[in-house]
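Let us work through a complete example step by step.
Step 1: write down the sequence.
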Amino acid sequence: MQRSQVTSYPKDKIKILFLENVSDAAVKKFRSHGYTQVEKINRALNESQLIDAIRDVHILGIRSKTTITDSVLAAAKKLQAIGCFCIGVNQIDLRAATQRGVAVFNAPYSNTRSVAELVIGASIMLLRGIPEKNNAAHKGIWQKEAKGSREMRGKTMGIVGYGNIGSQVSVMAESLGMRVLFFDIENKLPLGNASACRSLKELVSKSDIITLHVPETTLTHQLINKQSLRQCKKGAILINYARGQVVDLKALEQSLQSGHIAGAAIDVYPWEPEKNGDLFSCPLQNLPNVLLTPHIGGSTEEAQQNIGEDVSVKLFQYLETGFSDGSHTIPPISLPSQTGAHRILHIHKNVPGVLSAINSALSSNNINIIGQYLKTNDLIGYVILDIDHKISAKALSILRDVPGSIRVRMLY
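Step 2: predict the structure and record it as tokens.
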């Protein structure tokens, strides 16, 4: 389709702000698409800083350390969408974003391989007791022995959370000759020869390695605690590359010191420093056979490249076509473009009669609808309208006056 060059808001006026050292792939992608006002800051901002920075921003890109509250969203009058260049979206008040008509996108699959590979690598290192031997060698102590050093083959991998990452760990572990068990609150189809457990207790009591791949929710808060650690098989290894609040680190420290848990790999923490170089404290520091890493499970060059491209594409589609597939806040719509029309997006409260009011308002003004699609969620409705381009400016004004309207935007 040949679109008009005159749009309701030219690309060179759209302000884009990237925080937390978002991949340069995203910056280059936006600039190559004609968006010139792109600013990148290599750190997170606190709430007050973000409120000041976001007032005139149309697109915000963040990773996991930036918290988007209702207060931040209230200050962002021009904000159209937020791109989370990471797996999770728990750092955003999704309900507030939905009510304000702000689209939220993320990249749920782009770094699954990076995390899964590190889980397997950490498992091998811990089974072989490498952290202790490495530390001894650095101190000039020769510690060549086989005692306590074990192979992956024949052991049992217990996966808590059988989603994108957990299922990939499952395949990789089985390819190394491991037996795989998993536990998930939802029914999941096992891959390969993996078997589902009926409870967390059953899984931890049978597993040589326990790896966590769950979101941070009220149900998963300190899921691994004194009780669940006591239920673990003696000599088991625990890996947490999920969320910091999932494990009670004090309880894990005690279990490691007693020898009940033989080793641990932790990549996420209840509290994490804001930027590189800041002091970091953890109860597990200086314990033998413990791997501590600074939240780098998904931080590979390949993953960051994939995430940058994935989220950028979703943002482009929403900005330029209104497509909302993959959004956590805006109902998913992908209406094909119509020739000889202008496209208007209408976001409104999910109350009865809005679509009827839209159609009545347009019809009473002799405005012809060429294409239309509506979808709703619990809080809002989203309509894409393709109408006669000759009277689209008038239609835009009419639609803003429809009761329940939250946002109205003309694309082209």
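Step 3: interpret the result. The mean pLDDT is 93.
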